[in-house]
Amino acid sequence: MKTMLAENIKRFRKERALTQEQLSEVLGVTPGAVYKWEAKLSVPDLDLIIEMADFFDTSVDVLLGYQVKDNRPEATVKRLQEYRRSKDREGLAEAEKALRKYPHSFRIVTESAALYRFFGFESGDKALFRRALELLERSRLLLPQNEDPQISEQTIYGRIAHTYLGLGDTDKAIELWKTHNADGVYSAKIGDILAQSDHTEEAVPYLSEALAKILADLVSTIVGYLNVYLKRGDHASCRAILSWGVGLLTGLRKADKPNYFDRVGAVFLAALAGAQFLSGQRDEARDTLIKAKRLAAFFDAAPSYDESDIRFMTRIEGASAHDDMGATAADAVDHAVNQFDNEELTALWRSLAEQEDHHE
Description:
This protein is 68% helix and 0% strand. It has helices at 5-15, 20-27, 31-38, 46-55, 60-64, 73-85, 90-101, 106-123, 126-141, 153-166, 170-179, 187-196, 200-232, 235-250, 260-278, 282-301, 329-338, 343-354.
């Protein structure tokens, strides 16, 4: 238990302009005793602490400088999280105290496990990993208490697998990740670890599945940001994120052969044109719509929904690519333009769409 007793004795003494000798006379002790108290070399007896508090016109707890902690579960969880954020290893002792007080609290056990895993990876101390495993297994049994939608049995097994990796048991880690890889959530980890071992070719399907998931999430994220920025009227941010997205998707083309992300790229170009148009960049919007039309035509000439036509990826069993923006890429571009509900932009697109390619 930490207190500020030494500092407070010195502070209160100086506030009253007393020397150590004068305070010692008041309390009936030697000047050396006061010196030791203030130097943290010894601690006064309880009756002297009470006498000093009375002399200084303060309370014992103020003199001690002790602040009572909020040890309720919620406050304890927040403290454990803060220990992890600040990389303070004193959190491990705090975690053990909390575990003794709340041995059956899912949140306390889970946060304590996270703390042990964090310092395990930071230090490589296998004892910390082993303690983390004990706590993770306990948290799995306490899962019915869980109210956090970000945590499930699958995520706990994922943490257990990662902890085995810290212990150097790669085979056990991969086995657990494979067993609990619903929706390919651990495919990237599995692929990465396999690629580092003697199972390089086995890694490829997992890496392809992970990349497909990442790209699908990325497209959804860009569209989400686009809608946020449009509602804010932040057209500059619309242009920035769409330009980034278009460049990223262009890099997925393999051997100048169309793939599904060319269709998506055409839609992004149409949305970029809309953002440019709303920003008053009419000429840039026209040029971008022409690019959208050409990319859509490129895809529609030989449409491919096969993931193996995407750079870096191989065929994924049971996978499919689809959206709800129309039968063709040209339909999808038309849909994207119409979403802006701007008559001038729509008219510009209609005029460009009707032109023959040699007029462009």
